[in-house]
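FAQ
Q: What does a multi-component entry look like?
A: The components come first, one per line:
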Amino acid sequence: MSKIITKEDVAHIAELSRLSFSEKELAQFTGELNNILDYIHKLDELDTTDIPPTSHVLDISNVFREDTIHEHLNREDALKNAPEHEHNHFKVPRAVEG
Amino acid sequence: MDLLTSDLKTIKSYLDNGEITAKQLVSFYLERIKKYDNKIKAFLSLNENALKEAEEIDSKRQKGEPLPPMAGIPIGLKDNIITKEIKTTCSSRILEHFVPVYDATVTKLLKNEGFIILGKLNMDEFAMGSSCESSYFQETRNPWDTNRVPGGSSGGSAAAVSARLVPAAIGSDTGGSIRQPASFCGITGMKPTYGRISRYGLVAFASSLDQIGPMTISANDSETLMQIIAKHDKNDSTSASVENFEPSKAATGNLNGIKIGVPEEFFAKGIEPDVEKAVKNAIAVFESLGAEILSIKMPHTDYAVAVYYIIATAEASSNLARYDGVRYGYRAEGDTLKKMYTATRSEGFGDEVKRRIMLGTYVLSAGYYDAYYLKAQKVRTLIKEDFLNAFKEVDAIIAPTSPTTAFNAGEKSNDPLSMYLSDIYTLSLNLFGGCGISIPCGFDSKHLPVGLQILGNYFQEQKVLNIAKNYQNSTDFHTKIPGWLE
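Then the predicted structure of the entire assembly, as tokens:
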């Protein structure tokens, strides 16, 4: 089987996905993803040059509504499931790395 | 009065006539859950107020106060449909303690109709899986053989209805997640047309494919529930602006004039002989009811798995970006925001979810978009055209729901690709966007249920249900219950 992605590629995708893996997991995922991608390449059998893509099956676009105030969550409810909050805001660790 | 074989309208008549109270009804199912669910493990949580809600309904009924039509009938919801004040976990550690502050539209519609939410049902984590084994909390087992899986991802919903732990349940179907477990557990499960039922409050997996639907004992019950939940919703911008679903007024009793297509590609390599035999027997029943059976071709069926696992994972990788430990859900320690995100997601998601996020991120990443995502969308068009061409000739398509009956727990859990391939017959309907229903059509030599699916064009639920109802009026597979649960 051809190797479509390397362990280094998988590490890069993990970084993009905000996931971290041990060396052992990276090796396992590399194997599994290669298997799946190899299978997926069966699509190459089809010539799709002039076929339009389908992104959505229904003929709906730009569903607008009037810009008016509707029923909405109050602040207390919106914060109810937050792991940490302070002064009516979500609280997060330092965002700028230095 | 036999509750185990009664449909929802019959149960409603027992309540209306005073043959049973809502409290007795809820207690009946709670007792069954207590007695059997330690072996089946369908429920993740129970509504602590269910008995109290039933008592309130009884007291109103006694006083002659007005009640909504289905007042007092219990129902179960898959745990990706949010329920105000009842934990909704998606079977994931990342939402282990998540208690929604509002109801999904479907939840609200069911409550308005008088249903009592009995509890929340197990599923594959974030609906990603075909066996319920990727749940963080527990592995649901098949009531017909507890060494086997119930299917997935709506496996908890299917097992609960199959074991009659609840008279009906709601599931969701992104690539077969209602139909395949319905087939494995011997129940009726409907995937309505994309956009037919509001997805507001359904935790998003793959937004161009996800659809909520009923999981029930019979097609009659699916129709009853469709009438309640299939309504346009302004809170969901992909909710189709079509007329609300109404049951067919056409007289049933035969299928005269109905043309049914049987695609040869759905009887290809890998189908178990017992499954093929049961479906072929069922086709003879449809023919004897007056339907005209036509052999049809759907040449792109074989590409559905590849297309699905590009599109669904791409959409999932984007949808699941919201789990970052900030607004809700699990949070791991990290001294910077980025470290906190990474630790939270790495500890909060299970392997299958991670695998799909990774695959989705890869196919969308710079340089690969055309080769994978765009290619998949183009082949999606070809699959869609296969269906549209078929529906020029036939009213509905009949095919097996799954190439096999329920497999053993652990059999496929270490081989993701073989798990994906078990969805080979159900995925194409989601890519097309039409409607379908899986109904029981026999048993294999191990006495495991076999299911067939009836697939219809966009918004043709009436037609599909009518065909299913006719079949169930002349067969009794849908009434069967595993012996130890009678």
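Q: Is there any commentary attached?
A: Sometimes. For this entry: Strands of chain A lie at 85-86, 89-90.
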